[in-house]
Design a protein that fits this description.
It is a single chain. The protein is mainly alpha-helical and about 350 residues long. The protein contains 8 helices and 8 strands. Strands 1-2 form a two-stranded antiparallel ribbon. It has a two-stranded antiparallel ribbon with strand order 3-6. A two-stranded antiparallel sheet has the order 4-5. Strand 7 and strand 8 form a beta hairpin. It is globular and about 80 Å long. It starts with 7 loop residues before the first strand and ends in a 42-residue tail after the last helix.
Length: about 350
């Protein structure tokens, strides 16, 4: 859809001479594929870790919560700098292969060198930009590692062949939000890595866990902004410079489309509702059984039992003595103070 190849169009606009291998492995296939795969891995890591970060903030410091947070967050931490490298490579590919989309991403109107980088801002139909923060020459530097790099503007193509001002602004905001979230997540990873490197333990600050709890939602938003960037930035083409969106509109009746959309929404609501109900029931059973077992003196240690489920009952005389500690894996001082 972004750099189509492996076919030609006949006089009626139908694809002929199709080479399946070339049609699949286009110039943008590699950068986009790995950018998406790594995005899913780090998003899954931040989402799962965020759940345990909330538990940590609520005082659950057992081994399950430590591992439940550490394993997925470490996976996400490893992939976050990798994603920055891949993100830069795909931006460079867009600059080379889809210059008009790049112009929309950076709201560049006229082709020029020494182009400033706008943080947010709004593009108007006459090519002016209002709002935002302009950083001189930075866009040319990021595009070609030199302020003398020429960046092609939206005005270099006919109005019918480029995103309009509103679409360019949407693309630009989505791109900036995606990059901004990625930068904040990278700073969070640096915080995590620094504490682990210096002290060989998890960070102790509640602000770290508050940030980690928000990281899951933020990473999902970043993924959605990435899709908005690539799809809206390509307008008016559904297949870049080969098929317009208007030519790909289905002939199905609108009632059929709304019915299909409604079924999809219903299925996802049922799946999410079932998932949420199971999690809430597991949480309730765990806490109620903990309270009963603790009162009866028959509670097994969290390290030897099933997480998020009723504790295994043991005879009162066989109940293990509670381990000395502060509940977070650290030992008390000699005078008994935490």
């Amino acid at each position: 859809m972004n750099t189509p190849q492996g076919f030609s169009l006949d006089s009626e606009g139908n694809p002929v001479d199709v080479d399946v291998r070339k049609a699949i492995f286009t110039p943008m296939f590699g950068p986009q594929y790995w950018h998406f795969v790594v995005a899913m891995l780090l998003t899954a890591g931040f989402v799962v870790a965020g759940v345990y970060a909330v538990g940590w903030l609520r005082g659950r410091r057992d081994r399950y919560h430590r591992l439940g947070f550490t394993v997925p967050f470490t996976v996400a931490a490893v992939f976050t700098p990798v994603q920055f490298f891949l993100g830069d490579s795909i931006t460079q590919a867009v600059f080379q292969k889809q210059p008009v989309k790049f112009a929309a991403m950076e709201i560049v109107w006229n082709t020029d060198t020494h182009v400033p980088e706008y943080l947010f801002g709004r593009l108007h139909p006459d090519g002016t930009v209002s709002g935002g923060i302009a950083i001189p020459q930075l866009d040319s530097i990021l595009a070609g590692f030199s302020p003398d790099t020429e960046v092609r503007g939206l005005a270099s193509v006919a109005a019918a062949d480029r995103p309009n001002a509103t679409q360019a602004t949407i693309t630009h905001w989505a791109f900036d939000i995606m990059v901004g979230i990625g930068t904040v997540l990278l700073l969070l990873v640096v915080w995590y890595a620094f504490v682990w490197w210096r002290r060989r333990r998890l960070p102790a600050s509640p602000w770290f866990y508050r940030s980690a709890a928000c990281a899951g939602v933020a990473s999902v938003i970043a993924v959605e902004c990435g899709w908005i960037t690539t799809e809206v930035g390509r307008q008016p083409w559904i297949v870049y410079e080969n098929m317009r969106v208007a030519d790909a509109v289905t002939g199905a009746r609108s009632s059929s489309l709304w019915t299909m959309f409604g079924v999809v929404v219903l299925v996802y609501v049922l799946i999410f509702g079932s998932f949420l109900a199971v999690l809430l029931k597991m949480r309730t059973r765990w806490r109620l059984d903990d309270e009963r077992s603790l009162g009866a003196g028959t509670m097994a240690t969290p390290e030897t039992d099933t997480p998020y489920g009723p504790r295994a009952a043991v005879a009162a005389g066989d109940a293990p003595a509670p381990a000395a500690g502060n509940g977070d894996g650290t030992a008390p001082t000699e005078d008994g103070r935490p």
